[in-house]
Amino acid sequence: MTVTPGRRERKKAATRRNIADAALRLFCERGYDAVGIREVAAEADVAVTTLFSHFASKEALVFDQDPAFELHLTDAVAERSPQEPLIPVLHREIHAQVRHCASDEAAPLWELVDETPALQNYERSMRLRHADALAATIATDLGLEETTTACRTIARFVIDAFSLGREASDPERAVDEIFRMITAAWDAR
């Protein structure tokens, strides 16, 4: 059963989307380093405090879908049926994420990231955070009391599969190739 968000939640989501869109538009037009937070707030017609109530940093403006990415991965693990193997579920989820990020619509964002060192650093820290969250979810799913090295390793491989797939000339093929190795590693644990 899907719960429809209330008016307040819809308004907050619309404000967040408006801020992120304004930021990306300005960053793509003028370059990430040439645009300040006040300019983004003015473009989105919000106060700077409102901007910061939705985004913790300037870098977070670019990665506004970051929380959803992590949630999709952890939910894919936690909500799969008991008879469904772990690695194929993650393989499907990474394929879906790479397809989205390799789309023409996402190209300006990734071009911006690829040419901006501050955003590259932020993305690397996000990947580590995603890997930690995924590893903890895998450990919980397996009924483990703590996150093992095997869980952390597979989680990092999965997150790196996303990044490597996104950067590949043939993203689908790259993800499949990486997941053959992930499957072998998981089976060997």
Automatic annotation (TrEMBL):
Keyword Coiled coil attached: no
InterPro entries documented for this protein: Homeodomain-like_sf, HTH-type_TetR-like_transc_reg, HTH_TetR
Keyword Cytoplasm among UniProt keywords: no
The entry's DNA-binding region: 36-55
Pfam families per record: TetR_N
Domain HTH tetR-type: 13-73
Protein name listed in UniProt: AcrR family transcriptional regulator
